[in-house]
Amino acid sequence: MSTPDFDSMSRKELRQYMLEHRDDNTAFEFYLDKFSNPNSPIYPAPQSLEDMSYLQKIIRQHIPEE
After folding, report:
1. Would you say 5 and 13 are in contact if contact means Cβ atoms under 8 Å apart?
2. How many helices (H) does the chain have, and how many strands (E)?
């Protein structure tokens, strides 16, 4: 079996391939490398109840009202 050319696959194609070949760790690692944003902010986990309530407030502000 030959290895597919992950570089030429779109995000949708690679995702479909991974769903069909769930044991292919190479495809999964390629997906993470290709589509992960290294500049994404990292947020620390809440350390107290006060932090948790603050986090909930921020999340509510970013959820559009229906």
Report:
1. no
2. 3, 0
Q: Per this entry, what is the length of the chain? A: 66
Among candidate residues 46, 41, 9, 50, the one with its CA nearest the CA of residue 26: 9
Domain that holds residue 6: 1-38
In the predicted model, is pLDDT for residue 10 greater than 80?
yes
Predicted confidence at residue 44, as pLDDT, reads 83
Answer yes or no: is 46 within a domain: no
CA dist., res. 65 & res. 60, Å (int): 9
Region 8-17: mean pLDDT is 94
Place of tokens 């947020």: 43
